[in-house]
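Submission checklist for the structure archive. All mandatory fields must be present; incomplete records are returned to the submitter.

[x] Identifier: Minor histocompatibility antigen H13
[x] Organism: Cinara cedri
[x] Residue count: 349
[x] Sequence attached
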Amino acid sequence: MAETVDNIVKTFNETNDTSTESILKKTPATPEGMLIAYISLVVMALVPIFLGSFRSLKLHLKNKMKKEIPESMTEKDAMMFPIIASGALFTLFIIFRIFSKELINLLVTSYFYILGVAALSTLLRNQFSSMLPKNIPKTEFNLNFTKNSDENKIDLINLKFTLHEVICFLSCAALGSLYLFSKHWIANNIFGLAFAINGVEMLHLNNIKIGCILLCGLFIYDIFWVFGTNVMVTVAKSFDAPIKLIFPQDLLENGILGANNFAMLGLGDIVIPGIFIALLLRFDQSLKRKTNLYFNATFLAYFLGLLTTVIIMHIFKAAQPALLYLVPACLITPILVALVSGDLKALFR
């Protein structure tokens, strides 16, 4: 069975490599162009983790005041996640080989258009309101659909929103339309960053043990699908949706509009370590100390791990599983800090 799967993957990879080379001739990347692209990707990876972690802390404190328990990942979920992700990844790979890539990307892009507009408007609505002219009123609206009579009235839809939020949503929808028709890399990155920040903010881990299970499972997952086969790289290049951050390596030669040689970083390499780092920030707050020692140390370790990924990718001229370097950095660092600080029991409690 394993040999059969390997043969299928090998055949698909050879077909994809041939078609890719014939369709698009990329502009060779210069050392300056690669340096700009790599630095930009690293910065774009750090921003959502930093912002998302503090937004996650704020949401956690808000839920604590309301005595609400946020939905979080269990140990079983963490164990099953790499298996489910592997099935989904290989299914996408098969679909892209069987069906028209243009048709699949049209459906996927439309789906992510809706999600992206919602994510970006959620992220920007408070800041957007402060940027609007003061003569635009913050009028409140209530959209309500009910069922049955007044005695047995059931609210099917009960939405409350302001005029500022409507303007914000329409502006995000306009940007989404620009991405939908142009697929420009700047619009892609705006929606990718919105997804990443919301992911780090909303996805919660209950404790370090669950985080370790999740990261270790995805550590193996990433190594297998990048080094074992070309499936992940093929899907990432074929999947025309803002599930990755990209930056042109030929920006200096072809400019913003003409660039066609991109370096990329998957959102999973940001969100997965990000939710673990956000957990450490909440742990820092629970210790009630003046410094966020665990968050700062692990955030720095993530940066160094990502830098290592980029350097090795540049040296070997091949795609690298970023979690191969990020997972050890994010797991070993807080454990070492806890050993030195005497917080190891508290960390795993």
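[x] Structure attached
Curator remark: The mean pLDDT is 84. The longest helix spans residues 31-65.
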